[in-house]
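Database export, one record per block. Field names are fixed; values are copied verbatim from the stored entry.
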Amino acid sequence: MASPKTIKEAVSKTLALLADEDYASAEDIYIISRKLIAQVNILELYRLGYTRYDIAREVGVDEKAVRMWLNADHCPSLEHAITLETLYQRAKNA
């Protein structure tokens, strides 16, 4: 799956997943939502000048994890999701 280039593209792909009957449980929806939030945070951090390396270093993961989150191949753990959100909020308000 190619990385989304825009937030609109990430949301569109997420909505398509949510419309799929194979993803109907509350847990599926929660995971898909967390993937979308990670994608949005990463795309916004890119817009603010962060690189994949910068994000990985700040969150405490390797660059592959950031790429996989952006591609929605994996869902960040709750701890990493919170750290990613905190990084975005800090960068946005800098």
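Remark 1: Residues 7-92 form a domain with the 434 Repressor (Amino-terminal Domain) fold (CATH 1.10.260).
Remark 2: The chain has a mean pLDDT of 90.
End of record.
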